[in-house]
């Protein structure tokens, strides 16, 4: 129960508040950071997780059609993905490890942040305004958590158990990777 309010705060409201607080605080504490990477505490990370975001940062900065960059592909199933360098775009916010620009958060999202279900809110066309999320064919993280506000063994096994992620430590991303300009595919 939130003592400053007259009703119990549910999980979705607590999470939305937490995200707004954390994003606002991160940008305040790092006033020159052009973007931040949002990750949860129950992820396993690919060896190139940070290099992937470093390579995608210029794209997020320069491409007005890019909304966020995500490390996650909802359809990145074991045996169904193979090209670790292929990038895709979607109008659906994938979440689960993503990079958000300061410009987008401060100028558009922060003042209007929702009271619940922040991730569903980001999927609304009123927020993404036709801009797309960039994501890899092969995930750069894996959601390993099995217990949480909206997670249990049933949902983990149904939605995450068979997701693959990059484990190749020899893969290298250049800041001006050819992947940025030539390997975008259509959304699955």
How does this model look, in words?
The relative contact order is 0.23. The chain is of the alpha/beta class. The strands form two sheets. Strands 1-5-3-6-4-8 form a six-stranded mixed beta sheet, sandwiched between helices. It has a two-stranded antiparallel ribbon with strand order 2-7. The chain has seven helices and eight strands. The chain is 33% helix and 16% strand.
Helical percentage: 25-40%
Q: Spatial order of the strands in the main sheet?
A: 1-5-3-6-4-8
- The arrangement of helices and strands along the chain is HEEHEEEHHHEEHHE
Q: Helix/strand-derived class?
A: alpha/beta
Q: Termini, distance in Å?
A: 42 Å
Mean pLDDT across residues:
85
Which word captures the global form? Answer: globular
The share of residues in extended strands comes to 15-25%
Number of helical elements: 7
Q: Rounded to an integer, what's the Rg over CA atoms? A: 17 Å
Specify the biggest β-sheet: 6 strands, mixed
Strand element count: 8
Uncertain regions: pLDDT < 50 for 5+ in a row?
Answer: 176-188
Write a concise synopsis of the structure shown:
The protein is 33% helix and 16% strand. With 188 residues, it is of the alpha/beta class. The model is unreliable at 176-188 (pLDDT under 50).
Task: Write out key terms for the chains shown.
alpha/beta; 6-stranded mixed beta sheet; 188 residues; single chain
Secondary structure layout plus pairing:
Elements lengths: L10 H19 L5 E4 L4 E3 L3 H14 L3 E5 L16 E4 L7 E4 H8 L8 H5 L2 H4 L3 E5 L4 E3 L9 H7 L18 H5 L1 E2 L3
Parallel strand pairs: 3-6, 4-8
Antiparallel strand pairs: 1-5, 2-7, 3-5, 4-6
């Amino acid at each position: 129960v939130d003592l400053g309010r007259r009703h119990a705060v549910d999980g979705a409201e607590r999470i939305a508040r937490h995200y707004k607080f954390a994003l606002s605080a991160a940008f305040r504490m790092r006033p020159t950071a052009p973007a931040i990477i949002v990750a949860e505490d129950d992820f396993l990370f690919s060896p190139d997780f940070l290099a992937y975001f470093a390579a995608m940062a210029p794209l997020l900065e320069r491409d007005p059609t890019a909304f966020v960059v995500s490390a996650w592909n909802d359809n990145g199933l074991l045996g169904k993905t193979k090209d670790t360098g292929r990038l895709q775009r979607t109008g659906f916010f994938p979440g689960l490890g993503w990079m958000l620009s300061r410009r987008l958060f401060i100028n558009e999202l922060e003042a209007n942040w929702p009271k619940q279900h922040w991730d569903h809110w980001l999927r609304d066309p009123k927020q993404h305004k036709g801009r797309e999320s960039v994501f890899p064919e092969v995930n750069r993280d894996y959601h390993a958590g099995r217990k949480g506000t909206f997670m249990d063994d049933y949902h983990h096994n149904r939605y995450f158990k068979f997701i693959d992620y990059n484990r190749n430590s020899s893969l290298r991303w250049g800041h001006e990777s050819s992947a940025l300009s030539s390997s975008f595919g259509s959304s699955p």
